[in-house]
């Protein structure tokens, strides 16, 4: 990954801080309006420094692109003081040479993306995060993955399903390839989320609960699969092979949309049957509400 040279990053950080400071008025941050006129646009440095808990001299050095590297705590304080958006905060962290802290453990799936998962039906589709938690899915995917919708939020995780749910023993026709790829994918995500406590707990749980997972995890294979095939032996429709594609939404690259398609005519018939079953189940559920 290309990185911005330090001198350019400092200059951009300085300009960004000045521009955001000048864009705010005292009322925006809960300060009383000024009685006398001032030639200083926006907030004064003294006001921002007080709000962020830093000295005025320190803020001046930052705004003058001196060789100062603010800590993550200072960057966060400045982002709060300057009322930065999530995207602006991420930009400020990057300019300061830091990684943006982890987001909430279970991010909300944007409504448009959640609707897309439903719209692509009868193709099975779901949305995962970097821990491979399944956050959104359509009815066909739920039926394909053994009543996915009936599982708890915690159990609705690709790795927990593969390694800790006995129903998936023998489910994948090429299990070694499928589960090894999933662990290699998690290893790639782990490097960018080393401070994610929930991810650490998931890895510990899987290592303690599955010798198979522990073996794959210790191999330190790293691979991100954007597409491929998965043969399955479904208990209702029998053998079915799906081809999958993985798409990342620009608004949150930690999320991934996965869409399955039938890899051959036999599998298409199986998916059609699963779509009919999921539709019937949905109608029965509506009648009982």
UniProtKB/TrEMBL annotation:
Domain (HTH cro/C1-type) ranges: 42-89
SMART domains per UniProt: HTH_XRE
Domain of life from the UniProt record: Bacteria
One Pfam family linked to the record: MLTR_LBD
Matching InterPro entries: Cro/C1-type_HTH, Lambda_DNA-bd_dom_sf, MLTR_LBD
PANTHER family (UniProt xref): BLL4672 PROTEIN, BLL4672 PROTEIN-RELATED
Name of the protein described by the UniProt record: Helix-turn-helix transcriptional regulator
């Amino acid at each position: 990954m290309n990185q911005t040279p330090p001198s350019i990053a400092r200059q951009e950080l300085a300009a960004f801080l000045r521009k955001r400071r000048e864009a705010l008025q005292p009322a925006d941050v809960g300060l009383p309006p000024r009685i006398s006129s001032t030639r200083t646009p926006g907030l004064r440095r003294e006001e921002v420094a007080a709000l962020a808990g830093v000295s005025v001299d320190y803020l001046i050095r930052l705004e003058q692109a001196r060789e100062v590297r603010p800590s993550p705590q200072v960057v966060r304080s400045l982002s709060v003081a300057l009322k930065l958006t999530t995207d602006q905060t991420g930009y400020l962290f990057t300019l300061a040479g830091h990684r943006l802290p982890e987001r909430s453990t279970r991010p909300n799936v944007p409504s448009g993306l959640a609707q897309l998962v439903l719209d692509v039906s009868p193709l099975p589709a779901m949305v995962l995060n970097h821990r491979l938690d399944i956050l959104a899915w359509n009815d066909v995917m739920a039926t394909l993955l053994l009543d996915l919708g009936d599982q708890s939020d915690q159990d609705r995780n690709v790795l927990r399903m593969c390694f800790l749910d006995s129903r998936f023993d023998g489910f994948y026709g090429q299990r070694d390839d499928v589960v090894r790829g999933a662990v290699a994918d998690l290893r790639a995500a782990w490097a960018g989320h080393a401070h994610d406590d929930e991810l650490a707990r998931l890895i510990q749980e899987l290592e303690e609960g599955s010798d198979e997972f522990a073996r794959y995890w210790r191999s330190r294979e790293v691979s991100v699969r954007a597409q491929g095939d998965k043969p399955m032996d479904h208990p209702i429709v029998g053998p079915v092979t799906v081809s999958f594609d993985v798409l990342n939404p620009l608004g949150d690259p930690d999320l991934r949309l996965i869409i399955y398609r039938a890899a051959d005519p036999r599998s298409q018939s199986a998916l059609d049957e699963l779509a009919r079953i999921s539709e019937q189940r949905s109608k029965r559920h509506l009648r009982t509400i």
